[in-house]
């Protein structure tokens, strides 16, 4: 096949039409864990970073948009490795809400809080693949979505019901369902292995093993919802690729740590905010007075959270007294795994009622620091590590050649993690998407 080369004059004239932005005079936190660098300039061409260096040495091309960020801090966009999109309106969850309008609303909300990428884990319908593929063919105007499509649970088990999940009756049904996910190029496979503190049926190991084996046959990875240490050990030994929640019934032990390191299993998400959401709404919630939190909530949602009847209903849960200890155990286990060198990211289980997209990722970072991680460790988990888990080589850090997915902040998040909330603006693929 013959190859045709454009004359140099044509190449130069085409480059003249490139969309170029130059950000300058900011402090860079690039997501790699390196120390912050002051007085930086960044050139972005057609959504990708083409140069980073001293602001004094940046020479903006003719026609470039120059944005002075004096006094600001710039970090990569946050990557959430465990969320759910499209199924919730106000405080109601129903598959009928899974529409393009609602999905895109969720993704815009995530972006407004600095969450530029989300992995939606297991409650999606086929529309999500169309939206994902549209994004990857161009430059998205809201948070990037990765998806596990329909996850696997069992009838009467934790996780949901059709059309949001597969509900196989036996392991023999699993190969065709995994093949269907592979044909849609799912980014992950999700399964639920839990009994809701003895209230529901748990997926038998025979089925979870079949899911792992068939996913790996299709070169797909598997993330598992777990609660118990015993289930985590069994699934890690069977080759599961990621735990989508922390172990919460007891401390993780050396056996699990060694097995996770041997099998290169990720603690993809600790979902600390998910645990907090199980009990914090049982009394008036102080964050309702915080505009950063409340700005994304509808009046109906605020009324629900303020309703004493609903607060009393939450507190009347027979297991209510256990929930704070589950959060504490999850935090301790995250720190223990991190210290041991097990790879981990950031994930929240946001999306269902009471688990609010965007804010929960911000709150998760605070709870991770409360667990004993440093702000820099948390930033890396929420950016570089998230991209590594997704095999997204052009996301996660602010380096030459990568997409310009970034947050401009008014405060230094490496000094105080809550400064990730001091959002001046958010960019995805070089386009300002918020505010």
Layout of helices and strands, plus pairs?
Elements: H1 8-15, E1 20-28, E2 37-45, E3 48-54, E4 65-68, E5 73-76, E6 78-83, E7 88-89, E8 92-93, H2 100-112, E9 115-120, H3 127-136, E10 144-147, E11 151-152, E12 165-166, H4 174-183, E13 189-192, H5 205-217, E14 222-225, H6 229-237, E15 242-243, H7 254-263, E16 266-267, H8 272-277, H9 291-294, H10 299-306, H11 308-315, H12 323-340, H13 359-370, H14 375-390, E17 406-409, E18 423-428, E19 431-434
Return the domain count: 2
Please give the number of β-strands: 19
Which value, in Å, is the CA radius of gyration?
22 Å
Structural class: alpha/beta
Percent of residues in helices: 25-40%
* CATH-derived topology of the largest domain: TIM Barrel
Instruction: Give the name of the CATH superfamily of the largest domain.
Output: Metal-dependent hydrolases
Strand content: 15-25%
Name the shape in a single word.
Answer: globular
| Helix segment tally | 14
Q: State mean pLDDT (0 to 100 scale).
A: 94
Largest sheet: 8 strands, mixed
CATH architecture title of the largest domain: Alpha-Beta Barrel
């Amino acid at each position: 096949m013959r190859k045709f080369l454009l004359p140099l004059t044509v190449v130069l004239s085409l480059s003249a039409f490139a969309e170029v932005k130059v950000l300058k005079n900011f402090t860079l936190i690039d997501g790699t864990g390196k120390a912050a660098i002051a007085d930086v300039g960044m050139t972005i061409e057609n959504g990708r970073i083409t140069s980073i260096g001293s602001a004094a040495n940046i020479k903006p091309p003719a026609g470039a948009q120059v944005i002075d960020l004096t006094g600001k801090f710039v970090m990569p966009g946050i990557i959430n490795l465990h969320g759910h999109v499209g199924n919730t309106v106000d405080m109601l969850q129903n598959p009928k809400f899974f529409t393009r309008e609602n999905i895109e609303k969720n993704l815009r909300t995530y972006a407004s809080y600095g969450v530029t990428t989300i992995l939606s884990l297991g409650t999606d319908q086929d529309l999500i693949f169309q939206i994902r593929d549209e994004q990857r063919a161009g430059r998205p105007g809201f948070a990037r979505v990765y998806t596990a499509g329909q996850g696997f649970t069992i009838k009467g088990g934790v996780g949901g019901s059709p059309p949001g999940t597969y509900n196989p009756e036996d392991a023999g049904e699993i190969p065709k369902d995994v093949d269907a996910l592979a044909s849609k190029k799912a980014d992950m496979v999700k399964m639920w292995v839990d009994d809701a503190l003895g209230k529901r049926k748990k997926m038998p190991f025979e089925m979870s093993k079949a899911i792992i084996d068939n996913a790996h046959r299709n070169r797909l990875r598997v993330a598992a919802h777990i609660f118990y240490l015993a289930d985590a050990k069994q699934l890690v030994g069977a080759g599961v690729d990621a735990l989508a929640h922390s172990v919460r019934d007891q401390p993780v032990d050396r056996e699990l740590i060694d097995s996770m390191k041997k099998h290169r299993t990720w603690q993809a998400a600790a979902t600390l905010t998910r645990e907090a959401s199980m009990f914090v709404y049982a009394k008036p919630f102080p964050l309702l007075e915080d505009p950063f939190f409340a700005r994304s909530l509808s009046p109906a949602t605020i009324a629900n959270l303020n309703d004493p009847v609903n607060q009393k209903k939450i507190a009347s849960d027979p297991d209510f007294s256990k929930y704070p200890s589950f959060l504490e155990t999850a935090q301790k286990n995250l720190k223990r795994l991190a210290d041991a060198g097990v790879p981990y990211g950031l994930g929240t289980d946001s999306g269902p009622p009471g688990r609010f997209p965007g804010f929960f990722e911000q709150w998760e970072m605070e709870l991770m620091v409360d667990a004993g991680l440093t702000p820099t460790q948390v930033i890396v988990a929420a950016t570089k590590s998230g991209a590594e888990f997704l095999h997204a080589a052009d996301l996660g850090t602010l380096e030459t050649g990568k997409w310009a997915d970034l947050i401009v902040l008014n405060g230094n998040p490496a000094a105080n993690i809550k400064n990730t909330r001091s959002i001046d603006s958010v960019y995805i693929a070089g386009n300002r998407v918020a505010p």
